[in-house]
Each structure stands twice: as structure tokens, then as C-alpha cells.
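agent: user wants the structure for Glucose-methanol-choline oxidoreductase N-terminal domain-containing protein from Triparma strigata. delegating to structure tool.
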Amino acid sequence: MLRSLPRLSTASTSSQPTYLVLGAGSAGSVITHRLREAGESVVLVDAGGWGNQGVEKTGIKTNPLHFWKFSMPSALTYNLDPSSKYNYHYHTTKQPTMNNRSIDQPRGKVIGGSSNLNAMVYIRGNAGDFDTWSEIIPEDGGIDWSYKSCLPYFKRAQRDLTPERPFPDLEPGGTDVEDVKKYKGYGGPLSVTNGSTFSTKTYPGKPKVLNRSPLFDVIVKAGVEAGYKYTPDFNGKLAQSQEGFGPMDQTVSSRGERCSTELAYITPHLDSSGSPTPGLTILPSHRVSRINFSGKKAVSATLIDSTGTEKTITPTKEIISCLGSIGTPQVLMCSGVGPASELSKHSIPLVHDSPSMGSNLQDHLEFYVQFHSKKPVTLFPVGNWFPYPWYRVMVGLEWIFNEGAGLAGSNQFETGGFIRSRPGIKFPDIQYHFVPGAVVGQSSFLPHHAYQAHCGTLRPTSRGSITLNSSDTSVSPNIDPKYLSTEEDVKDLREAFRLTDEILHMPAFDDYRGDKLGHKDVDVDDDDQVDKWIRNNSHSAYHPCGTCAMGTVTDSTGKVKGVEGIRVVDASLMPNMTSGNLNSPVIMMAEKIADDILGKKQMEPEDVDVWFNEEWESKQR
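agent: tool returned. relaying C-alpha cells verbatim.
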């Protein structure tokens, strides 16, 4: 069925709200949804405009020339382009340990935030991540962050649409479906499925180059050949089976469209014309200039719209900052809450000395290991306009006219894996995303058949910071992750490189593996050569977090210590990174904190099994 035509939308207006939510990204959208569900009036603010608004409900999209950049899963790299207006286009400071390179750090400047720019991979993390949080966050009578207490909120958010898993021959005895269901959610706003749901669809006369690549299955078989287990679901039975190789879920709707938090959580609060329903005011294209305090209490926020006009919003209950790991500490410091020494450099009046504000910055580093493919089974014909522009057109038309069918309905991260880098690691610290294509940077496909494994370590020990360049929030802050600043991080990435090379040389790849790309002159056994290649070729996985960590900057409910009336809900709260992509954990955190904001009792913990390899202390696999 032809997709409905785009229309424009507007924001409604309302009187003084009970809550002011700063930032309409993954967390802000969730918080807004739950507050409105409870009948609270909300003003939601974002510096960006609308993204893929209201597709399933009304067919509304803000910009007919841009909507596909959000809605089409395979178009995920378009808003990473330097010309995109939906991206803050941040960069890190020059990193001495990475040959003085400044690393791209894109963040979503749009309703839905980075959930409208990301790769849509749905990974909750490992049970061990959350149990670690519960151990290091001081008990303050607030929220319990153990895995068993987080699982109900993962499930509340999720609407699982994932079909029966592939590779049953690799799982002796099959999988206990009822047992798997205990870990999944089916009635939430966030649609979750697997890309193969759409990419495997066929029709008479379909060219072979538009079929799903067999390489998605080959990487899983190679992982099993290398001695790792087959894992049918990295999330459904999370605590038992994250380790291994298998299909990887993505946040894609039943129509083969990106399920951003804008689509999942904001759309239900829009009427048929695309306007927010009564009780909700949405202010796109409004930058937060500062939070205003009366003594130690946050009472209002000053916003600046696209014309430079200031306005002040004063909620009756609380201000909730969901501006992300870069934006939240920047705005709080510019408002007088932060390290006194940092604020004095920029003549910012001190409201509260919070020495840890902006510190504890963590991010995932990753690299690509690439090979030529001896068979024409990659994305090359559709990854470039030349020399086969008609194939790209066919993929787009198939998606438009056939309910998301075809390659365009997948983010092309359909399979992957999680392994441990060495004995003594209790749960996976290396993640793989596999792509049956090879790119330069993030978006430019190489002009030949090739494939690549994205490999990155999951729990780096390096810690960086966000500091100010100016008291003006329109000026980007200093983003210094201090990548590879510990020897442990260097060793872990080195070992990850070697393990990746081993997996990609398994017999499953023999019929496909051509020459090495990029790393062909690297001696895998030479530490110095491997380290040099990693320093030259690694880049951010775009997972900054930890800069307003619970236990130091905030309490366990996100309330900023030392002041009143202001709470943080975004990835900056994470005391430690989760082992995987961050979008799903951030959504879970917002779901969980929303109950605390509303004074609701936390959902009952679920008594589920937590499994770790019995031989983790002595064996790597």
C-alpha cells in the first residue's frame, strides 16, 4: 500500500505546566508520554525540529523531502552527513592517544533525539551491568537498579514483533519459547523486530542483488565454528544467552519504519492534524539558554527560539533535563551547578559546587575489519548510486509500495555477537555488528563487493569529561573522552582485533573471503603494528554517557544533589556503561524514573535466572 503523503504539524499552547521537560530525545519522549498518560500538563522543549512524526497514526511527516531519512531503516547514515540540520555535529577534542585525531560525535538535534539518527540496534545490555549499578550506587531509599528490578521496565517499553528465530540447526533441541517470553514485552510503545522480517521478502522477478545477503548467516556460523555458542536472542532470554553469535534485534515498526521514540512515545499524544493534544505543549527549535534558580531551587528555564527571542517557562512541580550526556552537564554548568573552578573560568555565578559534574565521560570505541567478497552477495549494488542507480531506486520503491519490504526495511545489522576477550571476564566485553558491505567512515560504501565486522570493547576503563568553552549554550563544549588512556583499554582492543581476524578466517567464510581491506599490511601477531592500526582507525560508537552519574552528581532517582526542583533523565546518569548499544537502556531508565516522578511504587522485581559461563574464570570461550 502506498504510504500516506506528508503534512506539516504545529505545536499547541497551554497554560503554566506542572512539568517542564528539556530535550525531546529518547528519555524526554518517554518521560513526556508517561506524564501525559497520568494527566499531568507538560511543556516539552527541543532545539531541533520534527523528524518522522506520526507515521503509523496519521501519516504525518514534517518535511516531504526529508522524512525518508528518518523513516527508512537502511537510510540510517544520511543524518550523520555533515550537511544534516538534524545533527549537532559535535567533535571530541584532539585525542593524543589516537594520533591527535578529533573524533566525530553526532547527536540528534530533532524531536526523538538520537533515536532518530541511530542504527536502531536494540540491545538491553547484560544483567551484570545493572547488578553492578545496584552495588556502586549508594542506597538512598530511591530506586533499585538491579537487573531483576530493571527487567519489568524493559518489558513495559517493548512491543516485540520478532518472528521465529533462524538457525534452529545450531541450537540442539531448539529453544523453550515460553521461557524466552518471560524476558520480552509485547504491549509497549517501542516496536522491536529483526531486519530479516523485511529483507527476506521476495516477489516474482526480483533481482538476486536485492535479496538478503547470505553473509548475515555466515558470520553466525563462523562464530560457532570458532567455539562460541549460538544465541537465538540477545534480549529475550538476556541473562542466560547474551554471550555468542546470532540475530540482532532492531527498533523497526510493523511497517518497516524506524521506530524512534518520537514515533513510539510522542505520536500517541498528537491529534489527527498533527497537533499535540490538550495538556501538552511542544516547542521545537527552542534552545535551552539556562535554568534559573531561586536560592538552591530550580524554578524556571530560559529558552531562545530560532529568531533569537527569549521566553521563560515556569513549571509548578519540576524541571527534568533530558538533554543527553553532552547537553545536560553543559546546561547545568552554564546555570551555575558544576565544579566551582570550571564555572569561575567563565564568570558563571555559582549556585552549587558539584565537583563531579561533567566528569566520568565514557564511550565505546570500535573499528571495522573488512574483506573483499569473492561472491556478489553484498550491499555494493545498492550502497552507491553508481554504477547501478536503478537498483537503489528499486529498493526504495519496494519499501514505499510494499509495506517496508526489501533491503530498505532493515538497518543491515541483522546479526552480530558478544564474546569475552580473555579468561577472567565474567560476561561479554566485546560486541560485533556485521554488515554485508564495506564503508569508509560511516556512510560511503566502497565501490566493490566487500563485507565488514564492526568490533568494539564494551566496558572501557578510560574516563573523560565535558567542560565549557563558553557560558553560552549555543557554543559546543569541550568533549574529551580520553580514549585509550589506560593500558587495559589498549590491550582489550588489541585482543579484540585478533579475535575478530580469527573469526573471519573460519571455514564458513572460505567461499566468500577475498583479500583484506585496510589492515592488509598489519601483522596480527605484532603488538606495535596492531596498536598503531587501532589508533589510526578506531572511532566512536556514538555512546557517550556517565557525565551526571547516579551516586555522585545525582541520587538514584536522577535528582541533582545539592539543589531542588531539577532532575536528570538520560544516559548521563549511567555510573558505568552498559554492555551494548545505549538506546534501549536509556528508554528503560526513563520508564523507571517516570514512576518515581509520579510517586508510583516501582514495579515488582522479576525473579529470573541470571547465568554466566561456569568456566569464565579459566576459559575465554
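agent: one observation worth passing along. The radius of gyration is 23 Å.
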